[in-house]
């Protein structure tokens, strides 16, 4: 009987941690996120270019380009994080060149927008 109680308490703690974690990392509702498209070109060993290819204009201070090392069983590790360099609005055809000696093929590049209602992923691809 004691083992069943311990297992139940453990499972309850796991569920509570998962629910709590999801509440802390919840993205903005889709209706609050801007509709913007991006494209990524270049070689991770040299320079990667992120280009706004259409959709809404964005405040440059609200946009970050993040590169993660995908790790299967533990949280992804951030390899690189930068905000858009040019102040003002990011409009179609605006580009950001990013280079970092830690970039490798297979890493995940994410363009994130940080608004009043929370963050939202606008674009995601693998290098």
TrEMBL record:
InterPro entries: Pilin_N_archaeal
Organism: Natronomonas pharaonis (strain ATCC 35678 / DSM 2160 / CIP 103997 / JCM 8858 / NBRC 14720 / NCIMB 2260 / Gabara)
Protein name (Swiss-Prot/TrEMBL): Archaeal Type IV pilin N-terminal domain-containing protein
Pfam families: Pilin_N
Domain Archaeal Type IV pilin N-terminal: residue ranges: 5-70
């Amino acid at each position: 009987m004691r083992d069943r109680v311990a297992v139940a308490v453990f499972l309850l703690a796991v569920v509570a941690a998962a629910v709590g974690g999801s509440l802390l990392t919840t993205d903005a509702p889709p209706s609050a996120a801007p509709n913007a498209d991006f494209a990524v070109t270049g070689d991770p060993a040299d320079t990667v270019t992120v280009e706004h290819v259409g959709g809404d204009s964005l405040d440059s201070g609200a946009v970050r380009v993040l590169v993660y090392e995908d790790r299967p069983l533990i949280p992804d590790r951030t390899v690189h994080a930068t905000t858009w360099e040019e102040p003002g609005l990011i409009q179609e055809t605006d580009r950001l060149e990013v280079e970092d000696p830690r970039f490798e093929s297979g890493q995940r590049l994410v363009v994130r927008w940080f608004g009043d209602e929370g963050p939202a992923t606008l674009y995601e691809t693998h290098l």
